[in-house]
Write a structure and sequence with these properties.
Layout: H1 3-8, H2 17-24, E1 26-28, E2 36-39, E3 43-47, H3 48-60, E4 70-74, H4 85-100, E5 103-105, H5 112-119, E6 126-129, E7 143-146, H6 149-156, E8 161-164, E9 167-174, H7 183-194, E10 202-207, H8 216-225, E11 233-235, H9 240-248, E12 268-273, E13 280-282, E14 290-292, E15 303-307, H10 314-324, E16 334-338, H11 342-350, H12 353-360, E17 363-364, E18 384-387, E19 403-406, H13 409-418, E20 446-447, E21 477-484, H14 491-494, H15 498-501, H16 508-511, H17 523-531, E22 536-540, H18 552-559, E23 562-567, H19 572-580, E24 584-588, H20 591-596, E25 602-605, H21 608-613, E26 619-622, E27 627-632, H22 637-645, H23 648-655
Parallel strand pairs: 3-4, 3-6, 4-5, 6-7, 9-10, 9-12, 10-11, 15-16, 15-18, 16-17, 18-19, 21-22, 22-23, 23-24
Antiparallel strand pairs: 1-2, 2-8, 5-20, 13-14, 21-25, 24-27, 25-26, 26-27
Helix pairs in contact: 3-4, 3-6, 7-8, 10-12, 10-13, 22-23
Bound molecules: alpha-methylisocitric acid and iron/sulfur cluster (SF4).
């Protein structure tokens, strides 16, 4: 019986929500923790920075139309438009959407996750998106997972999405948030407890009496930043509050009830009493370096940025305006606000709230990702930058020497007014925020697909370079250790973003010149020199590739001749992206071998295709130092075939 029918019949099934939805969408495999399953995908989401590559890959699959219930393409990352590159990409995306049955959100309409939550997300559905913060839609009760663009392209073509059956962690919320403590502090508390690796292989599912105290956008703040724990996704139940939100968005008919689980439904439980929480801050350069705000009181703040897909809902920005009203920001602090969507921006503008923020000295930035991804509003040298965003990775602001701290909107406003970290209670009694009972819904920036797709021509500007060639895995190869990294290397280290590099996302040869820019700018040239001599290997520590879903962090190294990445452990999406592009992700069996390997060593792997086919161990020989390195892998049969074929595109085209 379909979940919807069961729910309509009012049968309460005592299993976790995530498990219910996953099982309901199961098309391959057996639902058993750790085993690979394939699930049917109802909705897909792309943004422009990963979208161009995803649609080039979709085009290469040779289909006429997407096969999903709903596919949406949103332009929000590359909106600086310092030259032709961004607008060329936008036109390409618009034409692809019109031709292949995809709804297109024009630049200026807002940040993909905020728009998707407002206008599209539905409880009980499955969504994959080519952005790691896709779990934002978990705030409405959908299973929403971030993935590489190629996985999204395959799902648009009707293929299942594969994942390891996750453990379901119940996050039990009790009590209610004190004034000046926000939803952001709940997810910072989760990060404080489980760190940036604690969610790997898990789904965080929220339940308990505290859930009822949180609105959908607040729940979405939590599921959004759950990505920083490495979790597969995060999810909330769908209840009366969800129904109210959907009604507010004039989508009440899309509501289904999904009752919350109980203690018995979870593999593990984390309990958080909201009444005991205090304002928290994630210190540089990790969302997991969480400390109480009070530890930082008195530290001078140079820049405050409010917005991003984590904290720019109407509720957030009404709170910000109410706190700024009648005040002026500190003369040594700059404040930028980027509203999450055009819907939010229009509401603030029409009711005069924007004026309150502008009068206080705020600079209103475009409704887009903007400073979150280093697209403008970079802080000054050595700045302390206080942001309501979800990531503070090294260099991400656009200024290498800046120190970025992640906080709630309330703490951000206090920092902007007083010019230092301080107790937000100094702003006076907590304002009473009235969310208007109805708002204007204007979908005119959403373009429906063409009703005459055969007449639509795909428009490609000079920035759109063709896809590279993919080669099957060789049986034996030798390669050089080109870099050896520390733990927790992020995709921002591997393939940085920002105003200079992000516009090159559709042009692999160009963007690959910036691989490892943040930590070793000599890497691309050294890799290219070595490419013809057999290629290179990257040696990584724990949690290698955490953060973004950007497949360029795999594609660009592949273009530079990287054949293998050998680490202590991987972050989920990056590992999957390596597989998708035919790079062999291996892990050390003994971490002492990590210590022995040196940059510049020549390594060798023999009989690798055969070993993969027969699931035999793969031994890497260090020729330079004359020792063997035992490695591990946990590929499914499908993944082994993909790697051998030289990546998922060759594999998918060959098997369709
Ligand atoms: C991010 O927040 O790091 C990004 C930019 O949104 C990425 C996607 C990308 O790199 O294009 C993400 O979260 O996946
Ligand atoms: Fe955009 Fe930042 Fe959200 Fe990524 S985290 S989608 S860059 S707002």
């Amino acid at each position: 019986m379909m979940l919807k029918n069961r729910l309509e019949k009012g049968i309460h099934i005592m299993v976790s929500i995530a498990k219910k939805i996953l099982k309901d969408h199961l098309v391959e495999g057996t639902y058993k923790v750790g085993e690979e399953i394939g699930i049917r995908i109802d909705h897909t989401l792309t943004q422009d920075a990963t979208g161009t590559m995803a649609y080039l890959q979709f085009e290469a699959m040779g289909l006429n139309k997407v096969k999903t219930e709903l596919s949406v393409s949103i332009v929000d990352h590359n909106t600086l438009q310092t030259d032709f590159k961004n607008p060329d990409d936008h036109r390409y995306l618009q034409s692809v959407a019109a031709k292949y049955g995809i709804t297109f959100s024009r630049p200026g309409n807002g940040i993909c996750h905020q728009i998707f939550l407002e206008r599209f997300a539905q409880p009980g559905k499955t969504l994959i998106g080519s952005d790691s913060h896709t779990p934002t839609a978990g705030g409405i009760g959908s299973i929403a997972i971030g993935a590489g663009g190629l996985d999204v392209a395959v799902a648009m073509g009707g293929g299942p999405f594969y994942l390891k059956t996750p453990n379901i962690i119940g996050v039990k919320l009790t009590g209610s948030l004190p004034n000046y403590v926000a939803a952001k502090d709940i997810i910072l508390e989760v990060l404080r407890r489980i760190s940036v690796k604690g969610g790997v292989g898990k789904i965080l599912e929220y339940f308990g009496s505290g859930v009822k105290t949180l609105s959908v956008p607040e729940r979405a703040t939590i599921t959004n930043m759950g990505a920083e724990t490495g979790a597969t996704t995060s999810i909330f139940p769908s209840d009366e509050i969800t129904k109210e939100f959907l009604k507010w968005q004039e989508r009440e008919d899309e509501w289904v009830e999904i009752p919350e689980g109980t203690d018995e439904d979870y593999d593990e439980i984390i309990e958080i009493n909201l009444s005991e929480l205090e304002p928290l801050v994630a210190k540089p350069h990790s969302p997991g370096s969480v400390v109480p705000l009070s530890e930082l009181y008195g530290m001078k703040v140079d820049q405050v940025a409010i917005g991003s897909c984590t904290n720019s809902s109407l509720k957030d920005l009404l709170t910000v305006s109410a706190l700024l009203k009648g005040r002026k920001i500190h003369q040594n602090t700059v404040l930028g606000i980027s509203p999450g969507s055009r819907q939010v921006l229009m509401e603030l503008a029409k009711k005069g709230h924007l004026a309150e923020a502008i009068t206080a000295g705020a600079r209103i930035l475009e409704s887009a990702c903007g400073p979150c991804i280093g697209m403008g509003f970079a802080p000054k040298t050595d700045a302390v930058a206080v942001r309501t965003f979800n990531r503070n990775f090294f260099g991400r602001t656009g200024t290498k020497s800046a120190q970025a701290y992640l906080v709630s909107p309330e703490v951000a406003v206090a920092a902007a007014i007083f010019g230092e970290f301080t107790d937000p209670k100094k702003l006076g009694p907590y304002p009473k925020i009235e969310i208007p009972s109805s708002i204007e819904i204007d979908d005119s920036m959403l373009l429906a697909p063409s009703s005459h797709p055969e007449e639509v021509e795909i428009i490609r500007g000079p920035n759109i370079a063709p896809l590279p060639e993919f080669h099957p895995l060789l049986e034996d190869f030798q390669f050089k250790v080109l870099i050896k990294t520390e733990d927790d290397i992020t995709t921002d280290h591997i393939m940085p973003a920002g105003a200079k590099i992000l516009p090159l996302r559709s042009n692999l040869p160009e963007i690959s010149k910036y691989v490892f820019e943040q930590i070793d700018p000599t890497f691309p040239n050294r890799a290219l020199e070595n490419k013809e001599k057999g290629g290179g290997i990257i040696i990584g520590g724990e949690n290698y590739g955490q953060g973004s879903s950007r497949e360029h962090a795999a594609l660009a190294p592949m273009f530079l001749g990287i054949k293998t990445v050998l680490t202590k452990s991987f972050a989920r999406i990056h590992r999957d992206n390596l597989v998708n592009f035919g790079i062999l992700p291996l892990t050390f069996k003994n971490n002492e071998d990590f210590d022995k390997i040196k940059a510049g060593d020549i390594l060798e792997i023999k009989n690798v295709r055969n070993s993969l086919k027969e699931i035999k161990p793969i031994t890497v020989r260090n020729i330079t130092q004359n020792f063997d390195i035992e490695t591990s892998y946990d590929f499914s049969e499908r993944e082994r075939e993909i790697i051998i074929a030289g990546g998922k595109l060759s594999y998918t085209v060959a098997s369709s």
